[in-house]
Amino acid sequence: MRLTIITSITGVLVVAYILELLRRQQLREKYAAIWLLIGLAVAPLGFFPTVLDSTARRLGIASGVSLVLFAGFVLVLLVCLHLSWEASQLEAETRSLSEEVALLRSHLVEHHGYPVRKQDTTPALADDSEVHS
User: Fold this and answer.
1) In angstroms, what is the C-alpha Rg of the chain?
2) CB atoms within 10 A of CB 62
3) Which comes out higher in pLDDT, residue 55 or 122?
4) Nearest CA to 13 among 57, 41, 43, 33?
5) Above 70 in pLDDT, residue 51?
6) What angle do CA 44, 49, 52 make, to 5 degrees?
7) Alpha helices in 1-133 (DSSP H)
8) 67 near 61, Cβ under 8 Å?
9) Any idea what the Cα angle at residue 121 is, between residues 116 and 124, rounded to 5°?
10) Is the pTM of this model over 0.85?
């Protein structure tokens, strides 16, 4: 019984936190929609844990709690995959922008007398492994 209460309270707190992040504009809407759906799905399941028992039995799973655990695991895998895809896209975009800046800087140096940045000639600091050995 206590687990159901803790689960429900956690779901409600997650939804409230997501709404607060949205209000402060610290979370984009496309991510907030997914997390709001998850929070809205978890909160009622905490209050009524036997709701999924019949669905779990039809799927051949022992209980609704096991079904929720499996669904949560699959969801976390999908979220990790999506974030990896987003990071890959951002890395490619950053590389492309860096190349464009380098080309623009090169053009400015050649044709408009843009001052060339001096290379840093100070020796790099030794890392911790070299200092201690």
Assistant:
1) 26
2) 10
3) 55
4) 43
5) yes
6) 95
7) 2-23, 29-47, 53-58, 64-112, 128-132
8) yes
9) 130
10) no
Task: Round to whole Å and give the CA distance between 90 and 86.
Answer: 6
Report residue 48 as tokens: 């009524």
Confidence of residue 107 (pLDDT cuts 50, 70, 90): very high
| One-letter identity of residue 110 | E
Which residue in this structure is represented by tokens 């998850």? 38
Given a cut of 80, whether residue 68 has pLDDT beyond it is: yes
Exposure string for 4-13, b = 16+ CB within 10 A, e = fewer: eeebbeebbe
Least confident of 1-10, 32-41, 97-106, 120-129: 120-129
CA distance 92 to 118: 28
